């Protein structure tokens, strides 16, 4: 049997697969990596994947668990579990260990590296601003994996744009020394570059690039329009997004659900929630079925306008329409609700409905309760995080510590501050705890 420490890190929907003993400490913050107590049981790939995700803020434990299930439970890792572990290592800049895993994958016929493996690696290199290293992987390493192709090229460009290295992406695609690869869908590349300027928040450059696409004769597609409508919304000009929507209609461009989601948000901002609801009904009448993002957009507009009863009705409608609410759905409510009891009831409903909170969910709620001066709900959320097996990050610790200091509980705040530092997480300098920036905490 596995220890009780392990099960808190497993996907709650899978925990019934394992029989657990309870003779281990209940707190997972000081516990060691789980060890088998008797005959190991077989685990499925999905359970292992979600268990690794629970360790995403503690790469050493994640790697210990990764190796342990393979050696002690005879688990055969899949490409998906390898990719998740590589992603966690990359988050903490452990790229040598990531490459060690990739070499192990090469020797495993059931877990060969694929495009996702290197998309993860590109993402982590570029998130760490190691652009040259990411490009070098594409140029020098992918050939040996037979993965140096258009898909990998687009993954590299997309990662550069996602993490605000759009200038490098533009140079890679259109620079003088461009000898990379011939891309069949050039519009796709331009869309990624446009989205990259959007990520930078350089609205003038976005407009300039949009016009440049016309001058170059780039055939704009639905995704081009969807991206630019979102740019107009984010830059504070939702009425221009509505104008673009009308232009699309006049050109006979059939909108998909992604475009409608942007239009609903734009009209909600420029004309109000009632007009947004009209477009929502229009898309359904035209046979375009809403998805969870559509419902979240409408729910957010309703919540922000104080129409909570209608927002709850939308939540019920989602369930009836077999549209599964996600964590963003509940965030719409959490941001606007003003009663701790109502928030905690909805939080419990969220978990009971199988929606797993993200770390930013816990942080949002703890900060909100702490700001209001309610300490008990802060600990309710913290305890729930522990039960569900989520390893707190620096933002979660800081939210708890700030709430404790606000209530004058300095000794307890210091305890969590020290615990945070012992895990290698950066702490804020605080006068109340006599910590200084120069001391690293």
Amino- and carboxy-terminal Cα gap = 39 Å
Q: Mean pLDDT score, rounded?
A: 87
Secondary structural class: mainly alpha
- Helix count, per DSSP? 23
Biggest sheet features: none
Number of strand segments:
0
Shape: globular
Estimate the strand proportion: under 5%
Spell out the helices and strands N to C: HHHHHHHHHHHHHHHHHHHHHHH
**Radius of gyration, taken over Cα atoms and rounded to an integer in Å:** 24 Å
Indicate the percent of residues in helices: 55-70%
Describe this structure in words.
InterPro entries: PPR_rpt, TPR-like_helical_dom_sf. One of its GO terms (cellular component) is mitochondrion. Keywords: Repeat. One of its GO terms (molecular function) is mRNA binding. It comes from Dovyalis caffra. This protein has 441 residues and is an all-alpha fold. Among the domains are: 290-336, no CATH class; 349-441, no CATH class. The protein is 64% helix and 0% strand. The protein is built from 23 helices and no strands. The protein has helices at 4-7, 45-54, 59-71, 79-91, 95-106, 115-127, 131-141, 150-162, 166-174, 186-200, 203-215, 222-234, 238-250, 257-270, 273-285, 292-304, 308-320, 327-336, 340-352, 359-372, 375-387, 394-406, 410-422. α2 (45-54) packs antiparallel against α3, α9 (166-174) runs antiparallel to α10 and α10 (186-200) packs parallel to α12 (222-234). The model is unreliable at 1-40 (pLDDT under 50).
């Amino acid at each position: 049997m596995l220890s009780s420490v392990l099960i808190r890190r497993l996907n709650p929907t899978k925990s019934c697969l394992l029989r657990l003993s309870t003779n281990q400490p209940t707190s997972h913050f000081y516990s060691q990596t789980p060890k088998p107590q008797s005959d190991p049981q077989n685990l499925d790939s999905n359970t292992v994947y979600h268990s690794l995700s629970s360790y995403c803020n503690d790469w050493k434990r994640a790697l210990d668990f990764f190796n342990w299930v393979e050696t002690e439970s005879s688990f055969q890792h899949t490409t998906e579990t390898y990719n998740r572990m590589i992603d966690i290592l990359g988050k903490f800049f452990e790229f040598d260990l990531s490459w060690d895993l990739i070499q192990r994958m090469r020797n495993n016929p059931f877990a060969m590296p694929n495009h996702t493996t290197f998309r993860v690696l590109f993402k982590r290199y570029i998130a760490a601003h190691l652009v040259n290293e990411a490009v070098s992987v594409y140029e020098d390493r992918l050939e040996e994996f037979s993965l140096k192709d258009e898909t990998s090229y687009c993954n590299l460009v997309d990662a550069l744009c996602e993490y605000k290295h759009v200038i490098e992406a533009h140079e890679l695609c259109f620079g003088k020394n461009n000898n990379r690869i011939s891309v069949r869908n050039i519009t796709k590349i331009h869309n990624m570059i446009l989205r990259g300027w959007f990520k930078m928040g350089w609205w003038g450059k976005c407009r300039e690039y949009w016009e440049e696409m016309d001058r170059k004769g780039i055939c704009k597609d639905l995704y081009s329009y969807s991206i630019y409508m979102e740019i107009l919304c984010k830059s504070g000009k939702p009425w221009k997004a509505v104008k673009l929507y009308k232009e699309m209609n006049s050109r006979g461009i059939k909108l998909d659900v992604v475009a409608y989601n942007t239009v609903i948000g734009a009209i909600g901002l420029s004309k109000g929630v009632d007009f947004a609801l009209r477009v929502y009904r229009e898309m359904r009448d035209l046979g375009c079925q809403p998805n969870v993002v559509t419902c979240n957009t409408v729910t957010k507009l309703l919540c922000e306008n104080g129409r909570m009863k209608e927002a709850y009705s939308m939540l019920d409608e989602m369930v009836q329409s077999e549209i599964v609410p996600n964590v963003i759905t509940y965030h719409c409510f959490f941001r606007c609700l003003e009663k701790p009891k109502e928030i905690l009831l909805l939080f419990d409903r969220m978990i009971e409905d199988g929606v797993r909170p993200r770390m930013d969910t816990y942080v949002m709620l703890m900060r909100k309760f702490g700001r209001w001066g309610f300490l008990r709900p802060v600990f309710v959320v913290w305890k729930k995080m522990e039960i569900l097996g989520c390893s707190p990050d620096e933002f979660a610790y800081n939210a708890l510590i700030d709430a404790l200091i606000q209530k004058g509980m300095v000794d307890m705040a210091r305890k969590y501050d020290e615990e945070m530092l012992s895990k290698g997480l950066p702490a804020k300098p605080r006068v109340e705890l006599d910590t200084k920036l120069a001391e690293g905490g």
